[in-house]
Amino acid sequence: MDILNDAYALVIERIGKDIGFSLALFLGALSYIVLRLFLRIAQRLLCFVRSRRRTLNAIARRYTENGPLEGKGLWLTRPIHQPENYQTNLLAAKILAIANLKGGVGKTTIATTVGSCFAHDWGKKVLLVDLDYQGSLSSMAFAENRSWIPGPNQTSIATKAISNDFDPGLLLDCIKNIPGMPGLDLVPAYYDLAQADNRIPIEWLLKCQPPAAEGILQAIGDLAYGKLFRIYDVRYTLAELLHSTALRAAYDLIIIDCPPRLTTGAIQAFCASSHLLIPTILDRPSAEAVISFVEQIEAFKSQGIFPYIHHVGVVGARVPEGSVAARQSRTFLHARFGAMDTEATLLPLDKEFPQAAALVRNPEEGIAYPHICGDQRNQNICNAIRTLTQHIANDMGIPQPIAQPLAAQ
Ligand SMILES: Nc1ncnc2c1ncn2[C@@H]1O[C@H](COP(=O)(O)OP(=O)(O)OP(=O)(O)O)[C@@H](O)[C@H]1O
Ligand SMILES: [Mg+2]
Q: Helices H, strands E: what count in the chain?
């Protein structure tokens, strides 16, 4: 300190008090700028080192005595930053993911019909979220109306929702009502979602941008040390949107139609969902695919990525009457689930979703449910849909409406 004081006194003596004071101010400002620059570079460096380590941990091959072993994958790395009140929000949420990594097993058909049943028969406010870039649910919902398809320089609502481009209010403004279906809304998806599914994890690995502070305390914490360490976790973007007070107030139930792949959208769907329904065709290859999928879900749960998701069950879909293959697949699934450490079970026969020609519709014909249930010839299939809907409602704690004229038919 003495040296500084002496130096200051010397400067004042040589160049005068005013100029000395200005010089001190200038040097102070310069040191502040240099310090900030240094901290910024240090932050970038730390982010780079962390993201490189995470990338290698996640996807690099390991070389063992028995040969190379694939990494467990980026999505299975431990959570970096879970949303505030994540567990509490999930326990209160009514969000159902309908998923299976096998394609064509009836996920979209079940999402649409069960969602329609809740809206049409139960009078619930239901939001369907299409997270498959093929947009089968979106094109079925909007039939010949093509206004939901994003223009040449636009992105779909699903892309924005998983890319952190929305706050809850903005999402609610963009959500579309399905024509002719009061109470049933949709977040549509289109082919641009495929690019977002690839872009998001790569940006996450490379850039590691810390998010902006959410409150005053977090901002102070950031100033002290947080920005150096806090890193955004892209797996919880959809969870933060769907668990918001605005979305919770707007909908009784949210149903997410997942793609048949572990995309960014699918991972975000699992992190946002309180419940999971797995439709499957009842043949041997599909039954084996279900076991592998449930094993993956359990690995995610035990790794703490989405530990609170609850299995509604595995439901046989498109089941032809009296099929021998279906009977053998049920036995196989019961035996395998019995030997696994999972709460997933195969739903009983009366909850299965039968094969029905009435459910096969061209996208331009729109949602089948109101037409099926308006036709006396389809009462069997209509009852099957209502039984499955009732089971889902019981499991998710969705209260039955007092007056239920259609379901009583
Ligand atoms: N219960 C059913 N009875 C008859 N056909 C059905 C039934 N459920 C679905 N299908 C038909 O099977 C095909 C695949 O169904 P759907 O699109 O619902 O499956 P998905 O699992 O969503 O497929 P993807 O994996 O491609 O998203 C569609 O042509 C649909 O009409
Ligand atoms: Mg589908």
A: 17, 10
The per-residue pLDDT for range 269-309, each reduced to its tens digit, is: 999 999 999 999 999 999 999 999 999 999 999 999 999 99
Check whether residue 54 and residue 108 sit in a common domain.
Answer: no
Helix (H, G, I), strand (E, B) or coil at 316: strand
Instruction: Count Cβ atoms below 10 Å from residue 137 Cβ, excluding itself.
Output: 29
Residue having the nearest C-alpha atom to atom 7 of ligand 1: 318
At 409 the pLDDT is 44
**Cα distance between residue 109 and residue 113, in whole Å:** 6
Query: Quick one: which atom of ligand 1 is closest to the CA of 257?
Result: 22
Domain assignment present for 403: no
From the alpha carbon of 104, which atom of ligand 1 is closest?
Answer: 23
**Pocket perturbation via mutation, ligand 1, pick of 133, 318, 369 by most ligand atoms within 8 A of CB:** 318
Which atom of ligand 1 lies at the shortest distance from residue 103's CA? 25
Q: By alpha-carbon position, which residue is closest to atom 18 of ligand 1?
A: 106
Q: Whose CA is nearest to atom 11 of ligand 1?
A: 360
Ligand 1 pocket (Cβ < 6 Å) reads: 103-109, 132, 136, 260, 317-318, 353, 355-356, 359-360
Q: Which residue range is the domain that position 139 belongs to?
A: 79-396
**Domain identity same for 374 and 324:** yes
- Work out the average pLDDT over 228-240: 81
**Percentage of the chain lying above the pLDDT 70 cut:** 92
Which tokens in the block code for residue 156? Answer: 């779909």
Q: Which atom of ligand 1 is nearest to the CA of 319?
A: 1
Q: Is 363 exposed, middle or buried (0-12, 13-18, 19+ CB in 10 A)?
A: middle
pLDDT in tens, 132-176: 999 999 998 988 788 889 988 899 999 999 999 999 999 999 998
Asked whether residue 283 falls in the same domain as residue 342, the answer is yes
Report how far apart, in Å, the C-alpha atoms of 122 and of each of 105, 277, 364, 385, 399 are: 26, 20, 26, 13, 9
How many Cα neighbours within 13 Å face the side chain of 260?
Answer: 14
Is 292 inside a domain boundary?
A: yes
In a shared domain, residues 111 and 49: no
Instruction: Please check whether residues 31 and 126 belong to one and the same domain.
Output: no
Q: What are phi and psi of 69, to 5 degrees?
A: -120, 130
pLDDT of residue 408: 45
